[in-house]
Amino acid sequence: xxxxxxxxxxxxxxxxxxxxxxxxxxxxxxxxMQFWIALAGGIALARTAARAGLRTGYGASAAAMLxxxxxxxxxxxxxxxxxxxxxxxxxxxxxxxxPVPLQxxxxxxIRLAHYVVITxxxxxIVLGGLDAYAGSxxxxxxxxxxxxxGERGALIVTAILNVSLAVFYSVxxxxxxxxxxxxxxxxxxxxxxxxTGPAQDRGSARFDPRAIxxxxxxxTALLLAGTWWALLASVAAWLALAWAxxxxxxxxxxxxxxxxxxxxFGAVVATLIAGLGVDEALRRGTRAGLLVxxxxxxxxxxxxxxxxxxxxxxxxxxxAIPPAREAxxxxxxxxxxxxxxxxxxxxxxxxxxxxxLTARTVAGVVRNWVAAExxxxxxxxxxxxxxxxxxxxxxxxxxxxxVPALALFAQG
Length: 412
Hints:
mainly alpha, about 0% strand, 2 domains
């Protein structure tokens, strides 16, 4: 049975959640290798659950994911999300002495369920339906003459691929987590973070972050309802007006436009390959692009501090639901500013000083970095709470976001 070592007094769930935030942000920003970069965050969350229990582990996991969303928005969240869903459970199972095969099976079940949801979202939201997915599959693989064809063939090959990936990543996760927790440094030298004041990065000076978040949710729901030109045009018009009035930050725009181009282009190409016509391809590509642009506006207009405070208040209102109370408390102590950047640079500098970059050496460096960063973090030292104050114009923003729903009634 695994018996965890004692943490230094400063190594708290908030410190470990901070490490997970740094790791997950880096994974989302990286062009590839998301799983391997996010492993450090998974180790931190598994350690949290192994030390403080399943509820606190998932509280730290939720806080880390919400913090990354406040900083970067919801784009590319799926890479670290799988580890955020599985790491606390593995840590809690390690705490109880659960056999390794059962840990792998639990991780596999969650991973596979996540893959199914992501595949469904890709097929029906981005590509627009199973017809485009199957048509693209037949065009790209039909010349081989080896794989099954049609919708059934596309689903079979996708299922085999998802199961294979889930098995590989689940085994890797469990083994790495177990090794890191069993060899955790007994007295890691804490890394002192930079002293920074609270940055009031609320974003828009005109609208309450809660209203911005609600308006973005409404617009996203309408986009998911269909691809009629009237609906797409009305959502685009509202988004242009909202962006002009909100005085949003320009910082998230570059990444948002890049992701918009990638998803829109992918949807158009897949639809054309499937032979569904130019009009259908343009409508599906426009919807995919608008979904990313709405998410980009959300981050730019609400700001990291505004989104974090919105998330924290939502968690506190539903604090009776486990582990919302723990997530709210941990989220309130996380840093969205200089400490995140400094922590990432510390890891890069540490890895850069390693002469022989073998798999075991890199894993050891990452584990020690997780322990040292968690030990040196002080909850609340640089956290900022945005001042939220609703006004009539916030209600108008949300009401205008709902106006494109008239296009649905007209279509019906």
